[in-house]
């Protein structure tokens, strides 16, 4: 079956569901070098352009992940704004491996190491063993499909979608891992790409290992900014007159929790500090929290401290239900190099535990399944390149806690795109999703009317304001 037959297949859209989306599926080869081999199904969703007279094509969107972690898949297009809906048929899809597309499964393995934001050296071997078993679970359930769940194959699937829809070109909006998907598509199929927006960028010059490890540093930048703001208002918060003083107050609370063997509470507190520091609107509540915790623990009132911390509602991993789960994250992140020497991971955990303990970034430095990989990639990652790549737009918040600011800078320079920096913002995935009207208007001007900024770098303000508390 030649590839042309995949491009020429007929797509049959369902009537609109209650959410307004039409649904369909397309068939793609599991292995594009063997189109006569096994096939995969890709699930699509469509919102037709609201003004057919102004329609200029189709726009695909991808966010979250890799593997749908935090991503909306088919439903992402519903979150884009009214203006872009007038000009495009918005196409959502679940990339190969998850959602309503053909799934890549992994066996569920339950970690034995406790959830600890600052794991001691005594836990290192168990953390590594948990990851070894996780990789085995991925291989047992995923088997022959795993090597074919790649960014390059997702880009190829996107081009099949383009062909099936009868379009010469597609436009694209990508968030987080979706920025890399879009950049790979534009490198592999530059003649088929129209307008592209890459928001909250994966750094294309980093391995997945480097991408993981730098999250701790990205969160800590926000903590430092919060600490400086709080120190400037010591008369209000009473946590010290310098950023170092304020962070020292956090560590005093941490030490008191550790003294009482409250690892669970200390871990939740680290999560709360990282989460609240990235959200400018919650800077005052974080200051109050640290002060109230210090008072409660000084008074020996652990119950009150527990109530304060648990009430923050911070994220923690949930136990998986059933025997199988989606294993795309573990497949995609093995596209790049992972050290086999466990001491490399242990050294990074020690470093971040000492310097960047807030949020859960320290855990990103621990061994990953890549240290125990059971398959080899069938082709190298894409080397992103400019030739023929149409100029688009890169969007990056300066305080993005997940994909560091530098990723946006590097990707914009590499592709020759203007960079839009959202200043004083801890947002991640912004255009059309976060409520930043200034940014949304700028991006809409490009997607709808083709208007790009004249400068290589422009700034827009973050839409989340710091609390209105004057300096001392």
UniProtKB/TrEMBL annotation:
Among SUPFAM superfamilies, the record links this protein to: alpha/beta-Hydrolases
One of the entry's Gene Ontology molecular-function terms is: hydrolase activity
* Domain Peptidase S33 tripeptidyl aminopeptidase-like C-terminal residue range list: 374-458
Organism (species): Lentzea fradiae
Q: Lineage in the entry?
A: Bacteria, Bacillati, Actinomycetota, Actinomycetes, Pseudonocardiales
What name appears for this protein in its UniProt entry? Answer: Alpha/beta hydrolase fold
**In its keyword annotation, does this UniProt entry include Signal?**
yes
Q: Which Pfam families match?
A: Abhydrolase_1, Abhydrolase_4
Keywords tagged on the record: Hydrolase, Signal
Q: Which family does it belong to?
A: Belongs to the peptidase S33 family.
All copies of domain AB hydrolase-1, residue ranges: 59-227
């Amino acid at each position: 079956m030649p590839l042309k037959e995949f491009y020429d297949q007929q797509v049959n859209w369902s009537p609109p569901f209650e959410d307004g989306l039409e649904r369909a599926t397309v068939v793609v080869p599991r292995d594009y070098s063997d189109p006569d081999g096994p096939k995969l199904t890709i699930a699509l969703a469509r919102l037709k352009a609201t003004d057919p007279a102004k329609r200029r094509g189709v726009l695909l969107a991808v966010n979250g992940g890799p593997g749908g972690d935090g991503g909306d898949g088919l439903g992402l297009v519903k979150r884009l704004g009214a203006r872009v809906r007038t000009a495009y048929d918005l196409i959502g899809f679940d990339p190969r491996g998850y959602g309503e597309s053909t799934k890549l499964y992994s066996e569920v393995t339950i970690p034995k190491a406790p959830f600890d934001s600052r794991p001691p050296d005594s836990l290192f071997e168990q953390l590594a063993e948990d990851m070894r078993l996780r990789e085995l679970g991925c291989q047992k359930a995923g088997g022959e499909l795993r090597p074919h769940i790649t960014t390059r194959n997702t880009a190829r699937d996107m081009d099949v979608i383009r062909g099936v829809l009868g379009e010469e070109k597609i436009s694209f909006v990508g968030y987080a891992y979706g920025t890399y998907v879009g950049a790979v598509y534009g490198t592999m199929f530059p003649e088929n790409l129209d307008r592209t927006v890459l928001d909250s960028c994966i750094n294309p010059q980093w391995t997945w290992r480097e991408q993981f490890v730098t999250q701790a540093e990205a969160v800590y930048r926000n903590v430092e900014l919060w600490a400086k703001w709080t120190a400037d208002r010591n008369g209000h918060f009473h946590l010290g007159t310098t950023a170092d003083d304020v962070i020292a107050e956090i560590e005093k609370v941490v030490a008191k929790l550790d003294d009482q063997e409250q690892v669970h509470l200390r871990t939740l507190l680290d999560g709360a500090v990282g989460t609240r520091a990235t959200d400018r609107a919650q800077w005052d509540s974080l200051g109050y929290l640290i002060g109230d915790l210090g008072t409660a623990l000084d008074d020996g009132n652990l119950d009150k401290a527990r109530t304060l911390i648990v009430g923050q509602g911070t994220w923690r991993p949930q136990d998986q239900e059933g025997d199988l789960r989606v294993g795309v994250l573990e497949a995609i992140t093995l596209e790049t190099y992972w050290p086999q020497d466990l001491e490399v991971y242990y050294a990074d955990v020690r470093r971040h535990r000492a310097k960047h303990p807030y949020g859960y970034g320290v855990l990103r430095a621990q061994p990953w399944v890549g240290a125990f990989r059971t398959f080899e990639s069938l082709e190298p990652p894409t080397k992103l390149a400019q030739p023929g790549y149409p100029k688009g737009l890169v969007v990056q918040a300066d305080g993005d806690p997940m994909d560091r600011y530098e990723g946006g800078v590097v990707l914009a320079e590499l592709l020759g795109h203007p960079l839009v920096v959202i200043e004083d913002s801890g947002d991640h995935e912004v255009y059309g999703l976060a409520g930043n009207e200034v940014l949304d208007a700028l991006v809409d001007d490009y997607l709808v009317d083709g208007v790009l900024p004249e400068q290589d770098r422009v700034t827009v303000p973050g839409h989340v304001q710091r609390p209105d508390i004057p300096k001392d």
